[in-house]
Structure formats: C-alpha cells, structure tokens
Amino acid sequence: MVGGMVSTNCSGTNAFRYGTMKDWVINLTVVLADGSVLKTRRRPRKNSAGYNLTSLFVGAEGTLGIVTEITLKLAVVPQDTSVAVISFPSIDEAAKAATKLIRSGIQLGALEFMDEVQMQVINRHGSEAVRRTAWDESPTLFLKFSGTTDAIKGDISRVKGIVQPFQPRKIFFARDKQEEADLWAARKEALWTMTSIKPEGYSMWSTDVAVPISRLAEIINRSKEDSSKLGLFASVIGHVGDGNFHQAVMYDAKNEQHQRSVSQCVHDMMSRALEMEGTVSGEHAIGIGKKDCLVDELGSEAIDFMKTLKQAVDPKWIMNPGKVFDLPAGSKAVAAK
Amino acid sequence: MVGGMVSTNCSGTNAFRYGTMKDWVINLTVVLADGSVLKTRRRPRKNSAGYNLTSLFVGAEGTLGIVTEITLKLAVVPQDTSVAVISFPSIDEAAKAATKLIRSGIQLGALEFMDEVQMQVINRHGSEAVRRTAWDESPTLFLKFSGTTDAIKGDISRVKGIVQPFQPRKIFFARDKQEEADLWAARKEALWTMTSIKPEGYSMWSTDVAVPISRLAEIINRSKEDSSKLGLFASVIGHVGDGNFHQAVMYDAKNEQHQRSVSQCVHDMMSRALEMEGTVSGEHAIGIGKKDCLVDELGSEAIDFMKTLKQAVDPKWIMNPGKVFDLPAGSKAVAAK
Q1: What is the 3-state secondary structure (H, E, C) of B133-189?
Q2: Are A48 and B301 in contact (CB < 8 Å)?
Q3: Which of A185, B85, B322, B333 is deepest in the core (most CB within 10 A)?
C-alpha cells in the first residue's frame, strides 16, 4: 500500500530510472504524538521553504507521526518500452557488463540481475508464459528500455555492442509486445516461483543489502558461497543498477540448526555489506530485525541524533514503539509487534 | 559553492531533468551544536536505514549543524545534447505549449521560459555570440534535448508537431554545436544582461516562487501587470518545467517610494503564489527575507514542529542564528547577518 511504501521509503525494479519513494512524495499530512496535525509542504514540484519534513517522515516507519494523506508526483508514461535478457558465464562478467551499461548513458528503465539458481527455478517452475522461453541457467541481466520508439531502437543496438566483451551466452531481445511481457514475467515471478517450491513446513528468509556498485559482484559471490557452505538453498535477485540485492534463503523453521544457520547467513551478509561501506537496508527499512545493525552502520552519533529528534517530538515514545530503535530504559510504552 | 547549494537545496535549469540538490547528496558529515560529529549515511545510492538525516540537513541553511563533507552522486554525461528556441504570441500560449511538451513524455534536459522584456534585453545587450541570432521579442521557450543522437533527432521532430497548435512565431533548432552554444547562451546571459543595463545607483531585487504548473501563466501575467502598474522595470525568467519563476525588478535604492513599491511587488507575488497552493521559495530557501512568509505557507503546526527539532538539537540556537526562524524570545544568541 502507498502508506507502507512511504513509511519504509521502499522501491523496486524501476528505482534505477525513477528513484525511490522519497523522490515522488510532494507533501504529507501527519498526525503528531500530541494530536496536532501538520502538512509538510504545499503543491509545487520544487520547494526550498523550511526544513524538508516530507523526507524526514518518509522512511521513519511511523515512529515520528501517523501519515494520513499523501500527495504524489506523477511521471509521464513513456511512449514505448522494450525488454532484453542477457546471460553471462559468471556473476563477475554480468556485473562488469552492468557497470559498462550504466556508464554508457543509455537511459534504461530498469537493470536487474538473477543468479543461476533463480534462472533454474524460473525455467522449471515459471508460468506458461515464462516457460515459452528456453532460459539459460547462468547469471542473467534483465534490461528494461523506455523512451520513444526510435530511441529504444538505437539503445538496443548500442547495448549489443556494449555487452560483447563480457562473453554473453544468450541474448533475447523482445520482438513484439507479447515477447516483452513474457521476458519480463520471469523477473516478476522470481519470488513466487521460489515460494512455490518451498517444502512443506519450510520458511523463506528474504533480506536485502546495498553496496557501492563496484563491490556488488564480490558481495553476491561471497554471500552465495556462505549459504552454500551452510547447506542452505538460496537464490539471488539484484537491483544491480542500484547496488542493491536480495537473497532468499529457505530453511526448516522447526529445525534449530537450520535456524542458527540462516541467522548466521543473514548476519554475515549484513556485516559484509558494512565492511564494503554499504547499508544493511536498501529498500525495506529497519523494523525490528535490523535495529542492532543500524548502530553498526551509522555509529552512535547519528543514532543519538535520530533519538534526540524522536524524543523531542514523541516524548512518550507512543508512535510505533520499538521500531527502528529500542525503547529507552524505563519507558512505559509497549513495543509494537 | 557546493556547500551553499546543499544548505539551500538549490537548483537551476537542469532540475527539470535531474531534480534538485537533495536528489544528488548521498551523505553528509555534520558538526553539531554540541561539537559531536555525525555522518548521515554510507555510500550506496539507495538506502532505507533509519531517518533520512541527509535530506533534513539539505536545505536547513546551516541551522541544524555545520556541513563539513559532502558525498555526491554522479550522473552519466548524455551522449549528445541539442537546443531549440520557440517564441509564442503570449505567455498563455507558451505555457500551454510547455504543459503539452511535459506531458508528451519526451525526456527534455531543460525547459525554460523568458518573457518579451527579457528577450528584448537579450537582443540589445547580449554578447556577440547571442546577437548572432535575431531573437523574436515575445514570450519564448528554451528547450534542451539530451540523450542519444538518434533519440534527439526523433524528439526534435515530435516537438515541432507538439507546439504547432500554439501559434509559434519563430522556431530555432540548433544545426550544429556552435548554434547550440549560441542559442543557450541567451538563457545563460539573462541575468548578466539585466545587470549590465541597471542604471547607476539602482539595485535589482531578484526573487523566486513556485506554483503548480497549471497556474504558472496566470501568476506570471499578474506579477508582470503588478510591477508595470508600480512603474518598475522587471523581467521574468522561469524554470517552467518545475512551475518555478524569477522576477528581477530594478529600483532606485535611494528613493523611498521605489523601495516601498518593490517591497510591495515582491510581497504580492509571494501572497499570490500562496493563494495558488504554491511556495514562497522554489530554490533559494528562506534566509532572513522570507521568514514571515514561511509561517503563512506552512502554518503554525509545521513551523512549531520544525522549531521543536531545532530546539532539541541546538538548544542555545547558536547555529546560523536568526535564519529560517526568528530567535526565541529571551535568547542570548546573536542573529547572523
């Protein structure tokens, strides 16, 4: 829902071209802890009047106030779109090709990555539309083109040249709207195909981190080695254009050893992201699960500053208590679940 | 300087395509009022970990802390650019054409407006390069194209069709890089040509407001009538793609009647922007001169919330005191000039 998207500053495949939620909110109406109601801005697209409260509430996870109205900016629908899918012999080659594509100046609408495990799952368990394509089960980039029809034609021919040095294995360019939908459906169905093969009684832990794009191949490779060493079945999907990726790990929630392994795996991924100057949360905020990591990521000065803001506007800590930060010692508020 | 750009969340002609300063700052290092130092974020382009302190400090005009380090995102230089200049019989027609261009989905790099007064000044007082073009002295749109060479060709032919219903008077499309530079130079020199014709002893009051794009023609027309009725010489330049415009008004700073007139003129322009759900500051923040209007724009709840944040992190009001808000009654801080 839009409210959740605002409160977590979420984003997805189109963020590469359009940015994240914070970039599309013009103003918010917010009910504060003391019951007063404010509106953060008026209607213009551009504004530099006073503190940017809009961006302070976006991503604050409801801890500074309850958002009751949201005014969004609209984007013009591009005249045309198209899709290409390109597989590579390794994650390194795919990441290098992605970097070259980003630097080329081609205005891609999205630039996504799926690893060989995810491609295998798609090949075997995708919908009928998805299985019309004989997918190559190796690290794969999904490109969305958007713009005028003429511009897209030019972009496609440039892309062919740009990826050539990275030993592409298979290249699919959509020849019509049906093929475009079929190709992109593989990306859309990624999570659902994983859910559909999850054994009875198993759970799936899906988490994301983001790193500078130059470190993306390295962290994906190391995270995959890690989950594989721990004997866990996991796939990787990446918003590679933003240096952001998700690992979905399956585990038996009733098996203690499994539980420890998956926790370890997720924890190590976050530590590794921090070592690479990354973030423990690219697009799903902090909630309860990542509170400890937030301190590791930003340091006590930034956390103390955030808490000072929180304390000033919600002295009883009644707004979504226990999210983002622990309640202060002695607080009478009850943590939300 | 970059520091000033960050602290005022400033922007200019390229904001239509690229957004404002807040969209390009990845993290900030800030010295707080108590002497502690924080870093707002790490390096990834995308991040949803904790409160968005980056956007809180951007545009805070140094009132929440002193920014000492800034990490910026870079944009890829487009493969090619070009420029077109189109004049119209009235501001209404120019604004309607602009709206149609925005909604067409063509990815313009910039979409600027100059009124007939500014075009006259450019024609007579521009540099040699600018005077190579015989400008039409009527309301004029300046378009910057950016993208691949092929895409730009397609965009230019679409633009010709889009503006046709609005009775364009003169259309210049740059045929080579020299013409592109010459045409855009007229926009770049706008402010300097105004300064160069300012009579000895006169001052120029340049201010900006922003409104929803649908109201832009109306507010420009009314502001021009207003300054003209008051007998003031004024030109209008607009970042029309963002609903944002500047009026530059000349006045004799030693003449009290002139001073009253120009104050009235600027004050009325801001009231009018607020009536149209606009903002008193599109891109130059609040400073000292617009403090009163900020309250009118946002209401006491939003201002009180901002002051609560300020008070919590700078209890002695020592950070750029007197900017954005007045000092609290009884404060020992001395207002900055």
Answers
A1: CCCCCCCEEEEEEEECHHHHHHHHHHHHHHHHHHCCCEEEECCCHHHHHHHHHHHHC
A2: no
A3: B85
Give residues 86 to 145 of B whose Cβ lies within 8 Å of A: 102-107
Q: Write the DSSP assignment of A69-97 as a string of letters.
A: EEEE---PPPSEEEEEEEE-SSHHHHHHH
pTM of the model: 0.94
Cβ within 8 Å, pair A48-B10 = yes
Best mutation target among B45, B68, B308 (most A Cβ atoms within 10 Å) is B45
Q: Strands of chain A (E only): list them.
A: 25-31, 37-39, 66-72, 80-87, 108-114, 140-147, 170-173, 202-210, 234-239, 244-252
Contact A252, A204 (CB under 8 A): no
Q: What is the pLDDT of residues A222-232, one digit of tens each?
A: 999 999 999 99
CB–CB of B311 and A306 under 8 A?
no
Q: Which residues of A touch B19 (CB under 8 A)?
A: 19, 23
pLDDT for residue B149: 86
Q: pLDDT value at position A173?
A: 96
Query: What DSSP string describes B55-116?
Result: HHHTTSTTSS-EEEEEEE---PPPSEEEEEEEE-SSHHHHHHHHHHHHHTT--EEEEEEE-H
User: Which class for A73: exposed (0-12), middle (13-18), buried (19 or more C-beta within 10 A)?
Assistant: exposed
| Beta-bridge mates of residue B279 | B210
CA distance A211 to A243: 5
Contact assignment for B104 to A76 by CB distance below 8 Å: yes
Residues B196 and B120: their CA atoms lie apart, in Å, by 14
Q: B-chain residues within 8 Å CB-CB of A284?
A: 48
Spatial separation of the C-alpha atoms in residues B163 and B142, rounded to whole Å: 13
Chain B residue with minimum CA distance to A212: B44
CB contact under 8 A, A298 and B47: no
Q: How far is B330 from chain A (nearest CA, A)?
A: 21
Q: What ipTM score was computed for the predicted complex, to two decimals?
A: 0.93
**Could you tell me which residues come within 8 angstroms of residue B96 by beta carbon, excluding any fewer than 6 positions away?**
B166, B217
Residues of B whose CB is below 8 A from A58: 52
Question: Is the CB of A148 inside 8 Å of chain B's CB atoms?
Answer: yes
Structure tokens, B68: 């000492």
What is the nearest CA distance from B146 to chain A, expressed in angstroms?
A: 10
Cα B238 from Cα A150, distance rounded (Å): 30
| Better-scored residue on pLDDT, A154 or A144 | A144
Chain-centre distance for alpha carbon B231: 25
* DSSP one-letter code for B277: T
Residue A188's pLDDT band, with cuts at 50, 70 and 90, is: very high
pLDDT-derived band at A77 (thresholds 50, 70, 90) equals confident
Q: Which residues contact B186 (CB under 8 A, 6 or more apart)?
A: B85, B114, B122, B126, B130, B133, B135, B142
The answer to whether B42 faces chain A, any CB pair under 8 Å, is yes
Q: Is the pLDDT of residue A210 over 80?
A: yes
Order of strands, sheet of B25-31, starting from the edge strand that comes earlier in the sequence: B37-39, B25-31, B66-72
- Measured between alpha carbons, how far is residue A48 from residues A44, A69, B21, B166, B200 in Å? 10, 21, 10, 32, 33
